[in-house]
Every structure is written in structure tokens, then in C-alpha cells.
UniProtKB/TrEMBL annotation:
This is ABC transporter ATP-binding protein. GO terms for molecular function: ABC-type oligopeptide transporter activity; ATP binding; ATP hydrolysis activity. It is a multi-pass membrane protein. Signal peptide: none annotated. The keyword Nucleotide-binding applies. GO terms for cellular component: plasma membrane. InterPro entries: AAA+_ATPase, ABC1_TM_dom, ABC1_TM_sf, ABC_transporter-like_ATP-bd, P-loop_NTPase, Type_1_exporter.
Amino acid sequence: MQFAAKLNAFIQNTQRLIPALRLVWQSSPRWTILRLLLVTCQGFLPLISIYLVKLLVDALTHRTTISNPQLILQQSTPLLVGVIGVTLITLICKTFSDLVNTAQTQRVSDHMRSILHAKSISIDLAYYENPQYHDTLQRAQQEATTRPNQILTRLAQAGQNGISLVAMVGLLLTLHWGISIILLLAAMPTILVRLRHIRRLYHWQRIWTPVERQSMYFSWLIIGEMFAKEIRLFGLGDLFSQRFDQLRKKIYNAKLQLIIQRSLSFLAAQLVAGMLVGSVYGWIFHQTLDGSLNLGDLVLYHQALQRGQGALKSLTSSLSGLYEDNLFLANLYEFLDLTPTIISPASPKAIPVPMRQGIVLDRVSFSYADSSRQALHDISLSVKPGETIALVGENGSGKTTLIKLLCRLYDPTNGRITVDGMDLRDLNLTELRQQISVIFQDYAKYYLSAQDNIWLGNIHLPPSDSAIVAAAKQSGAHDVITRLPQGYDTMLGKLFNDGEELSIGQWQKVALARAFLRESQVIVLDEPTSAMDPKAEYEVFKTFRELIQDQAAILITHRLSTVRMADRIYVMDSGRIVESGSHDQLMAMQGTYAHLFNTQAQNYVLA
Ligand SMILES: Nc1ncnc2c1ncn2[C@@H]1O[C@H](COP(=O)(O)OP(=O)(O)OP(=O)(O)O)[C@@H](O)[C@H]1O
């Protein structure tokens, strides 16, 4: 029963070969064909070579029976030329093989990276909040760029060595059938040791991935730019280095055990193999001394045995390598098999352009995966085209979460969100997101040109469209950019040559321009001016009001002085809407909003 299960697992495992080879083929069909041709040549060349050597030795040893040296020369010269020719061809094949191998490895690894990128883009945001996903991603990244190509290499090597081995075994069979059997027996212990080690290594890697990731995290903290300031000011460098070292030491110790076990087992296997092959050599020399074999035969069989052993060794190494590749490919497929759940329906409805009734959240509740708490609870609100609503509330009250649901980065656990009465889940996802322009509080800083930073908001426009400058003027970024050395062509950030760093408020203006550039029906600004000075903030909101016209706008801010402009204000607390109305209505209610507003106003006066 156990054997059947093992066999089944082995077959399942082998099935991964085909798609991996398909990936290799897709990435570089011409290189693949060339490689297979070279491998076939390289497989046959050793046989031709040693056969010519045998004929040459025979011709030379006939010297004793043939008295005419001219005749001997005539017979042996073409053979010698043949041996040299084959050696030369072998060398040329080897050189081309290396070239093809290097070129194809590059192609396959780039192709695999593209596949990983495509998958990463398609999967749900929720995956990124799951540690197991990060383990899977890390393992997939480790395998993706090397394994598929390695499989082809090993298959090619196995083919090449297989051809050589069959030829050598054929030769040895003419001497004694038992020799081939002994060769095979000699290879068995090594094969078994390898397979056992591969399985151990695979399980070891799965167990240790989280620790590996943790250690890499500390390395990233120490090396990365993002934490460079705090690490220096808080003196955290040594602490993080120590934590990194501790983790690496744990990994090292565990791996060392694995390697020691493998080495000892290999040593034992090699000793057994050595004794078996040694006995065959002994027998051949005995036969030669007996006179049963002549000198040419001795050379032929010695070479056949040596090369046969070499080919068998390489073949078993390639086959066990293939087994390893198959096993570890599971890591790649585990990632490639992840399926997004936030997708367009099979027959999506067209998103209305322009919207008439607007967006409605109808009793929406939501919990993040693996969280028992509800981040949103029974939320109902609406925003019509041309209206601006504001969401206010303490940290963690659910404002950003609500926006993420609106963009369908997540789907509600209960309730529904509609656009003109149509559930978001019934709409085309790409079209929906095209109609929403969002700048989150943790907006992106792209280390690209200033122009690209804004253009990314609407890549359907030409990269130097005049609308980019218009959007920059609206957000206040234009003045910042024109003062840069190369204006809109200036590289932002310090990651690449000639980059210019911006202040946080300036980066925010650039991000805001990106949002303004998007031709969408809904605009969402999540803390868009938190880093701006009061004058810039005032300008942004003044422009914003003029700008939105028919757009539905949602504004999230802690600065209550700016939410007065909203048509309606929703006050959130612990995932619920606790108050809603205009500024005046809410002030009159003397509830949470009025309290927050008065506290801020008081602080402002005190300041
Ligand atoms: N990715 C996530 N996974 C699990 N829980 C999350 C996640 N993001 C936010 N939360 C939780 O959801 C709740 C609401 O968070 P949210 O970011 O929506 O608050 P917020 O009102 O925007 O806060 P802030 O004013 O600080 O930006 C918080 O309790 C937070 O801990």
C-alpha cells in the first residue's frame, strides 16, 4: 500500500515535467532545437572516438606480423586523422553547447520572471496579507528562474549520457554480460542516497522558509533606504544585525546536519561502487594476462568501462536531478496555481458612463481574512455625481477599508455596493477601476521621471500629453517640477543617477496630480494633503471643488476644517457610521463630530 502511494506520488511528480518543458519551449524554441541536436551529436561522439582508437591500436600492434612499414602507415594514418577529427568535433560541440546553454538559460529565466510578474499582478490583494503566501512566493521565486531550464539541461545530459551508456554497454556485452549488471549494481546505492537526500532537502526547505524570510527581512531593514534614518538615529543597526546573525546561525546549523548526513551516506555508497567496479577491472586484466584479450581489446574495454561508468554516473546524477527538479517545481506551481477571486464575471455589465444615480453602499459589512473583528459593520451611504462626501473618524475606524471595497480590492462579506443600481461584482473589473481615481495615504513614489510619475495616472494618454502639466498645475506640483534641473524629465528619488529627492509634501503634490490626470467618474482622496502646508492645502481644495464638477468625490481627512466643503459628512467609529449630515447639521447635533471639530479648533487657537 505504501509502495503504491509512493509510486503514485512519483508519477504525479513526473507530470510536472511536461508543463515545465513547455515553458522552456515557449521561451526559446530555436535554442531548444539546437540544443537537442548538439546533445545527440555529443552522445555518439565518444563511441566513434574509442572505436577509432581501438582500430588504431590494432593497426599498430599488427606491426609485429606485417613487415611493410609503408602499409602500416597507410592503414594507421586515416585512423589517426579520424581520432583527431572526432576530438576536434567534440571540442566544437562542447563550445557551441555552452553558448546555447547560456543563451537559453537567460531567455528562460526572463520568460519565467515575466510569468511570475503576470501572476503577481493578477492575484488578490488579500494574498499579500497572508504570511503563507509570502512563503509560497519566496519559494516560487527561488525555483522559477532556474528549474525549468535545469530540467532541459538534465534531460539533455540524461539523453547524451544514455546514448553513450547504451553504446558502452553494447561493447561490454561482447566481453561479458555480467559486467553491465555489475556497473548497474554499483550505481544503485548512490541513486538511493541521492533520492533520499533530495526528499529531505525539499521538506527542510518548506520548514525553514519562514525563518529564511525573517532573516531576509532584517537584511532588508539594514540595507534598505526606507529605514536608514531611524536605524541611525535609534541606533538599531547592531540589534538588527544580531537578530539577522542569530537566524542565519539557526539555518546554518540545520543545513549543516543535512549536509553531513548526505556526505556520510555518499561516502558509503561510493565505497560499495568502488569495490564492485574494481573487481571488474581485476577480471579484465586477468583475461589479458591469460591471453584471452589482446592489447587493442584491453584498451577498448578499459575505455568502455571507464566511459560507461562515467556515463552511468552522469546519467544517474541527471535522473536524480530531474527528480529533484520535479519535486521543487511543486513550489513554483503552488504559486502559479493561486487563483484570484476578485475577477470580472463571465458576462460583465457595462459600467454606466456617465453615472446617474451614483454609488450606494447598502448595509455593507466586511472582515479581513483571518480576522475575527469586523472592519466595517452595516455601512450604508451614497454619493451622487457632482457630490462630495467626507469620511471622518479616528484611526482604525474603517475609512480606508471602505475605499478598498469601493475599488473592489476586496468584496464585502455582507451587503452590496452598487453603481447606478448595478452590483460592483457584476461589472467589468478593469472598467470599474478605470472609473475610479484614488490616492491612498500610502501613495506610491515611483523612482521615474516627474512626467512619468503623473502620466502613470492615465497611461491611455500620450506620455507627454499637455494634460500632464494641467494636472500638475491643479495639484500644485507644477511649481515644484519646473524648479527641478530637467523640469518634467527629472528623475525623482535618489535610487538612480541624477535623481532629485522631493520633500514629503512635494511627493504628495505629484501623487495628487496623478489622481487628477485620470479621467474617471469617481475621485477618492485619502488624506491627500496631510503633508502639505496650509497654503498649499487651501489651493488644492479650492481647485478640487472647481475640478470635480460631475464627478462623485470622496474625501478622507483628519483636518476637519477642510471637510466643511463636503455636501455630506459621515462620521465613522469602530467600523460603523455613527453620524451623518452637513457640517452645520452635525455641529447642531452636538455629537462626536462637533466634539472632534471643537477640540481641533481649540488646539488650533491654543497653538
Ligand atoms: N490588511 C488588513 N488586514 C487586517 N486588518 C486590517 C487591514 N487593514 C486594516 N485593518 C484593520 O481594519 C480596521 C480599519 O482600518 P482602516 O485602515 O480602514 O482605518 P482608517 O479609518 O482608514 O484609519 P486611519 O485613519 O489610521 O487611516 C483597523 O482595525 C485595522 O487594524
